[in-house]
Amino acid sequence: MEAIKHSHVQVRGLNLHLAEIGTGSEVVLFLHGFPEIWYTWRHQMVAVAKAGYRAIGFDFRGYGLSDQPAEPDKANFLDFLHDTIALLDLLAIPKVYLVGKDFGAIVGSMVAAAHQDRVAGFITLGIPFLLPGPDGIRNHLMPNGFYINRWQVMPI
């Protein structure tokens, strides 16, 4: 795919798979959904790079070509938040535009809320701004058949 470069970077003890294209000084970080990987964003990354930005997508821990944590049952959304910030630190990116789809939008929401100084802008696709927690995802407000609800196990 049009000069997308792949590498692995060590982030918080795990090797995360990184895909990037473009050399602009402004960076757009694409956050994939579930059960997806960086590849979801390949066309958008090329378009963003052609518009003059540096476009980066990565596979979250446990997804795609990234390492799975040693104890995945102990992982939570904070791990994804910390991984994202650690990735920005490693790549010396002080401020970023975030684009997140469903699961990735939740991670993006957390980054935007907890690290406002690191976020130049935030686009969420598929779901509204949500933070995890007991009141975070409000299934009763979603339309019948909404795709996130179909992935969840609901008690009968």
Automatic annotation (TrEMBL):
Domain AB hydrolase-1: 27-132
Alphabetical UniProt keywords: Hydrolase
InterPro entries xrefs: AB_hydrolase_1 (IPR000073), AB_hydrolase_fold (IPR029058), Epox_hydrolase-like (IPR000639)
Pfam families the UniProt entry points to: Abhydrolase_1
Gene Ontology molecular functions: hydrolase activity
Domain of life: Eukaryota
Protein family according to the UniProt entry: Belongs to the AB hydrolase superfamily. Epoxide hydrolase family.
Annotated protein name in UniProt: AB hydrolase-1 domain-containing protein
Upper classification of the organism: Eukaryota, Viridiplantae, Streptophyta, Embryophyta, Tracheophyta
